[in-house]
Structure prediction request, 855 residues.
Amino acid sequence: MATAKSAPGASFRQPAALFSSRSLVVIALRLAGLALVDAFAVWFAARLINDGEYLLALFVAVITLGINAAFLFEGMYPYRWFTPGLALLILMIIYPTLFTLYVAFTNYKDGNLLTRVQAEDVLLSRTFLPQDAKTFNWTAFQSSEDSSRWALWLIPTDGQGEAIFAEPGDATPASKVDLGDYTLDEDGIPTGLPGWERVPFAKTIAILDSVLSKIQFGEDESTFMLNPKNPTKQAGRFEAKYALNEDGTLYDRETGVTYQAMKGTYTPVDGPHKNAQGQVTDVEGVPLSVIRPGYYVPIGLDNFKRLVENDRIRGPFIRVFLWTFAHAFLTVFITFWFGLFLALLLNVKFTPGRAVLRTLLLVPYAMPAFISVLVWKGLLNEQLGVINKFLTSLPLIDAGPRWTSNAGWVKAAILLIQLWLGFPYMMLITTGALQSLPGDIYEAARVDGASALQQFRHLTLPLLLVSVGPLLIASFAYNFNNFTIVELFNKGGPPISPDQPAGHSDILITYTYELAFGSGRGADYGFASTISLVIFLMVALITFFNFRFTQSWEEISENV
Amino acid sequence: MSSPSHIMQNKMARDRWLNYLGRLVLILLALFFAFFPILWIASASFDETGTLNTQRLIPRTSGLGNYDTLLTSNIHPFGTWMWNSIKIASITAILTVLVSAISAYAFSRFRFRGRRNLMLTVFIVQVFPNSLTIVATFLLIQTIGRHVPWLGLNTHGGLILVYLGAALGINTWLMKGFFDSIPRDLDESARIDGASDWLIFWRIILPLVRPVLAVVGILSFIGTYGDVIISLTLLKDKDVQTLAIGLNRFISDSFNREWGVFSAGALIGAIPIVILILTFQRFFVSGLTEGAVKG
Prediction:
């Protein structure tokens, strides 16, 4: 940049050439930066591919190529300025959107949470102890540097062959172990090893189940683990339990059963024992179940079919869907009218103290919504809250409304909270709109003998709606997805039916959340994403309507 | 003395006052509605009995016991939550302003192929709040965290990364409008003096648009501070959670017993935002943020 100063005239009207100044330092720095980005991206993408996360790997590749192009080609110069924003937008918004679209057509849920590669990795690393497996007497050693690292000294129980020193990922025959200053005791076990301390047998009992039994010692091909049938004494040479056949089926080397992936779940299809119905069974004739984990696969329209065809899901879903609209509409409706009412009260010229009153009325809007909801949750507590205690202290009222456990009252409570949270905003925007109304039309109306009510209905309201209409629709769209209020007040409850995640005050976004992350039921990301798509569609429609209604799209396009 | 015009004037003045008093009664009712919950928790926070059940508007015994418990309790690390919230919201706000300003400058000053489509894309994308893709976002952060632990689930890095996805959005439009209003003559004369684009942006334009940077920063801060869905999904451990999640956890654990302590926390948590919004309220209404509703 300093070099450019030497030739001010030459750089005039050539901004691009200036920035790409031939200064070697600048170029070197830029290339070094790109090399760093590329190195990270290659490493990251490789690991993603290794895990079977192909779509994400593709996105990482596209983003990285884009960054490289922007910084290497002069023609792409302006895009350099967008690289941070666009990279974040593509990775954190566009990718999740496309992934939601994909997941909605898959069975991504508990039991099928992994990619195919990941599921195979997990299953292929499982081991079993064959009937004729070689067994050993073991002695535990603990690393003196890392106390979470353990190793075993293994002496064959049949006396055949050499002892083995096995640590996770490595096994060494006794003859090759460097004993250092230590010696073998009368049983042939080292009294210690360089970097390792021998653990007295009594001390191993305490960690037998929690630690030692879980560790796989040795390399992948020959794994040593404590023998589950006799863990205190014996260890055995374990072998891989499953083998992957070329046709993608999984062969259980212990039981001889073949499993085939049905919609991502390995299901028994063939084996040495079958019952009369043709089911694969174990030795005792009990049908075998599928093995987990499975992986997620596209299942076509199954999630959508569930929504439409399954009565137990469709009924609650329709309720949630309708309440989502009703909640957003009623929220806008009541806050708008209450806000407008206050704005009109304060809009009269003779109003001493107007500024203070206005500011005070804004305070509920200024509170963070999550705090307001939680406060209201306390006030509306059915037994202990101040509102119900006040109501029950009145004559004729025995019990206050069941704000959180009754299907109707919970909706009333949410609307009450929304009114409190939202009226100041509506007061603000309608005040602004009222102040910008032209005064002369009222003059004309008065001359024509219009009453105050007529003036309001035929002049004020229509003009007002034109200017605040888009804000009302935006507010509708916002409340359509107002997770904070609904989730924090009552988690969408009370439930519509005990076996379904949908609740009486649930809106679509809290329903989605419950399906995916709700406790007690397994996660169902696939179905949750299907509901997300429904919300997407609705938001798109509302926005489209907003643009049509206000013709603001033209305005936006012109402003570009 | 009492000419007809005087009588008229007196009558008008009286009517005016009557009208005002009538309106004032209604406004005071609205003020009662607006302030009752706030007064109620303010009172609760000083009430030494400290439970939802026993609280009265005027506490029988008042003191700072709830505040003391709030700030020293290990069960509910309020100080940590507050600090987490402020830290995350500040970092998000600063980075959002930077990313957005760089992009807005390019939109404002450069003419290039794809500019119009890019601007419209940014506009359309921000119509869909990123809470809609919460499932996919959760899975994405989980996957990223498997390889880059400090950007994974249960980390502030991962959470901020998600918030920054929206950095290039309506803010950029807002800023671009401001940048457009800075005369290009300034750029040109600086360029004649040999300044590069970056230098012009950093040294000349940015200082001139400080107000809009502040507005975008504050909007982003408030939005992040108030986020529930993303932080609730990504942060699981007590010590990394934000105020929004922590306070919720507080009252789901032991609502009645801890009401006083919760109230103290609610008040302290609300104050910074209330001050910010009341100070900058005009930015929330004026055409600047049309369509942007507080999150």
